Amino acid sequence: MVLYDVDPHRLKVIAQVCTTIAAAVPGAPPVRTTSDLDTALRGADVIFNAIRVGGTAGRVVDERIAIEAGLLGQETIGAGGLAFALRTLPVATGIATRIGRLAPEAWTINFTNPAGMITAGMRAHLGDRVFGICDTPLALVARVARLLGVPAEQSRPDYQGINHLGFLTGFFHEGQDLLPALLADPERLGRLEEARILGAERIQRAGAIPNEYLYYYIAAPEAPPTTRGEFLAAQQAAFYDAGPDGAAYGRWQAVLDERESTYMAEARSQDRHSDDVAVGGYHDVAVDLMAALRTGRPARMILGVRNAGTIAALPDEAVVEVSCTVDDDGAHPIAPRTELGQEQAALMRSVIGAETSLVAAVGAGSRELAVQAFAAHPLVGGRARAEALVRAYTRAHSRIAEVLINP
Asked: What is the pTM of this model?
């Protein structure tokens, strides 16, 4: 296993965490580190792409500029998500180019947010050998399975969405869709974390269970004293400042636990239930995905892939999150048996339109296309505000100024 980072200190700390974990696992691979991308890529079978261009400081700026404009301050949705993509896409596509040259047979698993746009940008260089991965739909399915008393691995969920905006429209077990009965039972539905965030009545009206990120599309924007980015920046700085000593793994686990327990705290009236925290996280699906790709033993999971008609209501070229069968030939999307609501599909299409324009803006270096992307997003609203946001983000981020060099 090779760890790559542009920050040598971070690399040492995380290497110490991984080495501690590996020491307790018989037959674990050796852990190597490098600050040279080409060295990391050569000979790779599977590549996990998880980068944060501009660090947590960049996230703080993205959130604060949006909040000052009276908008949602969130890292992956709305203005903040578009700004994050503006400075991340050139780096991510550069990595994809290097993968194509040095490890063309490798499978690339993209964790980098905003995952839909980043995966779309990397697809231009890697095609179907790159997938997007997000834990929110996977956690939703696990929570519904637990609530219904059905082993998640025996279920056949119909999840239809894009990154951080999707709906569970069916949940099949032994050929029967169990979702309608759950939606008709407000007491049981109310025990679901998504219902505690969004309200059971709203979910019943939708006729499907939304990804919890729908909260950001329906809640009034707020100006919190401390943003999520500011909280994580302070938390991570303390963790890395402690250094790569023998206690690094314990500190890492404590930081992870705190991050998970405070996730979307602004949307909750009470602390997260321990069972809900337990089903979150990327680690299980990442390992399952890697195992299926390398061994050919089929596995089912929700991934970000090219739509290609899988969700009829969405554009073919969009990166969508749907159930897939995975083997050593890649991911094979499974067409849902249930329908996506018209209102749900319309919201997704509006977001896809904005994100597609943003990816094109980066490719062309076009400020005008970037303004159009911001203006088209349903959480921004309007040309004047979009122009002001693009000006503000360009002034705040030298990387964005370097990208948008054309009118």
From this structure: 0.95
